[in-house]
Amino acid sequence: MKKVDERWVDSNNNSWNCNTNTKKQAEEKSKSLINCWNCWNCRDCWNCWNCWNCRDCWNCWNCRDCWSCWNCWNCRNCRGCQDCQDCQDCQGCQDCQGCQGCQDCQDCQDFKSNPFRIFFQDIGSRNSETKIYWDCFGDTQVICGCFNGNISRFIKAISNTHKDNKYATRYINLINQVFTLMEV
To answer: 117: Cβ–Cβ under 8 A, 6 or more apart, which residues?
Structure first.
């Protein structure tokens, strides 16, 4: 551990502020980092790179002020998220991109506030899950199998795939329920 420009720096170029950490505190925090590089003021992290003020994170890159996150990239102020990119102030999300202020979302993209959501279980020819997100601005997102797009594109995909069979009817009924919820 060496002092460089008011920072305690370890052999992996992880560093801690000298004004808020003694050398001993910085050494203890350094020991809590496993295979981390270029991190600032982090502790209890594994395989992270270029993160700042993170705690209990795994395999994260370029994150700031995150806690208990896994495999995230370029996120800010997130808690308990997994496999997210470019998100801010989110909690408990998975596989999201470019979201802000979300909680417990999965696979959503570019929402700027916590979206409303509904998940349908055991639906369609795959008997699987369909997730529909929307916000107060009218933005929508549907995740169903390999489909990921807005409701209009989903309706077209249903028509192309199922024509007017029982699966199409069930999907359209569920979408009508969502439209009703969106109006409330």
So the answer is: 105, 131, 132, 133, 134
For residues 147 and 152, give the distance between their C-alpha atoms in angstroms, rounded to a whole number.
12
- Which phi and psi angles does 88 have, rounded to 5°? -140, 135
Mean pLDDT of the chain: 91
pLDDT in tens, 104-120: 888 888 888 888 888 88
Residue 71 φ then ψ, to 5°? 55, 40
CA angle 134, 107, 61 (to 5 degrees): 125
Residue with tokens 């020819």: 125
- What are 176's two structure tokens? 């009508």
Token pair 């506030």: residue: 113
List helix spans (H) across the chain: 23-32, 151-162, 166-183
Strand order in the sheet with 7-9: 2-4, 7-9, 15-17
Look up the pTM and report it.
Answer: 0.72
Query: pLDDT tens for residues 147-182?
Result: 888 999 999 999 999 998 999 999 999 999 989 888
